[in-house]
Amino acid sequence: MRTILFFIAVLVVFVQPSFANDNSWSEGADINNDGTVDYKDFAIMAKYWLANDPNDPNDPNDPDITWVYIDDPGVAGHEGFNGQMSKYETTNAQYCQFLNDALATGDITVSGNYVYGANGSNSGADFAGEPYYFYGLGFDYDGATNGGAARISWTDRSFTVDSGFDNHPVTYVSWYGATVFANYYGWRLPTEWEWQAVADYDSSYTYGCGANINNDMANYYGSTHPDGTTVVGAFGTYGYGMCDMAGNVSEWTSTVDGIYRVDRGGSWVSQGSIGNCEVSNRVNCSPFGTAISGGFRVCR
What we know:
Blueprint: H1 2-15, H2 23-26, H3 39-51, E1 67-72, E2 81-86, H4 92-104, E3 108-111, E4 114-117, E5 131-134, E6 139-141, E7 144-147, E8 152-154, E9 159-161, H5 175-184, H6 192-199, E10 250-257, E11 260-264, E12 282-285, E13 294-295
Parallel strand pairs: 10-13
Antiparallel strand pairs: 1-2, 3-4, 4-5, 6-7, 8-9, 10-11, 11-12
Helix pairs in contact: 1-3
């Protein structure tokens, strides 16, 4: 079907070339930003239609996710988790790939310091007009300089990751931006109870790193890392073999609580009571919100 659509699209370009000069038709279709809509743009579309099927969970063109299979009964009275969850928090490199993929399929637009959703060719859910990503500055705090800053840059044609930050967790992603990343590749965000089922391991974990926590076990207030966030997995594996379920960045879940969305896990700026990093701690946040401390992981 995608092959047929591609050839129809190319036929339109060659049979009716005047369309390429029709601004009302070409707006948003000039994928390579060369000022015209022609076969080069449709070649880009074809690459993603044919090679990057968002409904194929094993597509080799998808971001490289390390999956861990988990079967946990969950917290009493709530759903457990049975499936695969990402061992690591989603990285800048993975989210950058999504932004470039979504740019090519028309599923995002860039305006000022924001990336917004758009109705492109991806068959997953889009949140047209909603903010996905923000090029935000970091925070000089707890020994960090420009800590937690957005590390993905827009060069007017593509997205790139700032040198040295490929494997840091992505920050400044809204709930919409996290959800659509998952949807784009046929994955999803865990519910808050699925997240807790995995984080508390066999129900003996108070934190995502065990019954106890300190600055050698997780990246939270007092860890004093110069960039705020640390490379995913830098503090080792715990429970089911998961990393950073306490600290580094807090993680969006799919759970809706009124007008809010729930995130879990605490972050590098979690201060005061270490209770912010407890597996049972939940925070209600606006789905529009982007922050120096907010990220996510995915499951399937």
